[in-house]
Amino acid sequence: MKKLQVWLPLLFAIVMMVGMLIGFRLRGNIRPTGFFKTRKQTPVQEVMDLVTTKYVDPIATDTLGENAIDGMLAHLDPHSLYIPPADLSEVNEDLQGNFEGIGVEFQIFDDTVNVMNVLAGGPSDKAGLKVGDKFVKVDDSVVAGNGITNDRIRKLLRGPGASKVTVTLLRAGESGPARPFSIIRGTIPLPSVDVAYMINKDIGYIRISKFSETTHAEFAQALMKLQSAGLQRLILDLRGNGGGILQESIEIADDFLDGDKLIVYTVGARSPKVEYRCRREGLFEKGKLALLTDEGTASASEVLAGALQDWDRASIIGRRTFGKGLVQEQYQLSNGAALRLTIARYYTPTGRSIQKPYDKGHEDYNEEVMKRFHDGEVLHGDTSSQHAGPAFKTLGPQKRTVFGGGGITPDIFVGFDTSTLSKEVTTLYIDGTLSRFVYTWYTQHIPSFQNFKSPADFISGYHDEDRLWNALVSFAEKDTVNLRNVPTKDKTVLQHRIKALMARQIWRTEGYYEVSNAYDPAVAKALETVK
């Protein structure tokens, strides 16, 4: 028995070796399947492996991989993109509708971070920050005169909710040393409804800048507030709205359309057709409705505009929309990045695809809007002969002809104001001269602006335009911008813009748009239409 115990391990080893030898010889005759199947590497994977293991010099494999991904996506549509881990948080914040921070708006002038606005009731407001404050330090990091950038100051100020950050500030009008302020970070909303107000006793105006997770809730709250103030007719402004979450625009369309009307449907080569229909009683199914659009109106905004146009529910006013009829889905990757991949096209209720062509490459696609300026379309309007897509008849009572294949063409065209393109005016914007002037003037004259209780009061009661203009002319000359001989129309447009920017300093975006709209030809046309 003892001899057997001694030799037993050796017998087991011999049996195992014989079994492995037989298995190896049989391996060539058996096709691996299921769990034992080895996945063949693609050429891309093989090249990556060889470069990382054999290349002569050290190389950043993450960068190499991202470049390979970008090269692959370049052969797809222009809206499929790779989002690196470092950028993903900021991208998602815009869609979530909030972020963790201190609640200030800032701009950098002459290497100095200036507080432009303080969110009422936000962390900075509670800590005592004011418009006109200048950042010297954030915690132990000196930020004044230190080559500071928007991205760096943003990263220093943002952080987890309930965490503390200490900022050292110079206060306008105080001669003493810089003062420290302790701020407890909190959740800062990124509202998508810029403004909602009554233009007159029964016409309201709402502007939506994007479609995030909070957009429909914001819109519904704003609409009901206006209805309680007597709203009967509405102007909805989607100019510059590049889209966002499709479902949010569908919910808003449902507020305007009755029954079980089709709002939009999506379909792709590997995605089955999905129809989105009205499913509840809307908040504003009756009453005149005007929708403002321009070349910056895209994606989810075009879904809303297309549905309301196809059912003859709204008058579309402004300029042709961007022409993005592709649906993206975002996929999380193992390295913390994300892939936003186009999975379907969307179609308006009549069956229109309003996606503009991209068969000439991404560069040509991205420059298409600039071609509209070059070709004069933004000045004189589009015509049916310029459309690549077929004609359709609207589904509402009017049975109008509408077109696919390149954006939503407005029912009423309002051209681009060429006075904003003159050399002197363009330089004011590009160099930041106008922003610096407005900020400087406002912080030096805050008491005189505190007399105005509302934007409407400011529109009718502020009459300092000539003094402001003369001050701007002198201020611009320091930046070698000569405004003394600009055409009268340019001067008038600039005066209106300055007044709106001053209102923004007092009431943020609400004040800016309420004052700006008083001089906006598209808003004037919309008022005329809904009346």
Summarize the structure.
By secondary structure, this protein is α+β, with helices and mostly antiparallel strands. 40% of the residues lie in helices and 21% in strands. The strands form five sheets. Strands 3, 4, 5, 6, 7 and 8 form a six-stranded antiparallel β-sheet that branches. A six-stranded mixed β-sheet has the order 10-11-12-15-16-21, with helices on both faces.
User: What is the strand tally?
Assistant: 21
The 3D shape can be described as globular
Low-confidence stretches: 26-32
Q: Summarize model confidence as the mean pLDDT.
A: 89
Report the C-alpha radius of gyration, rounded. 30 Å
Total count of domains: 4
> What name is given to the CATH topology of the largest domain?
2-enoyl-CoA Hydratase, Chain A, domain 1
The name of the CATH superfamily of the largest domain reads 2-enoyl-CoA Hydratase, Chain A, domain 1
- Helicity, as a percent range: 40-55%
State which percent range the strand residues make up: 15-25%
Largest sheet: 6 strands, antiparallel
| CATH-defined architecture of the largest domain | Alpha-Beta Complex
Give the CATH class of the largest domain.
Alpha Beta
DSSP helix count?
Answer: 19
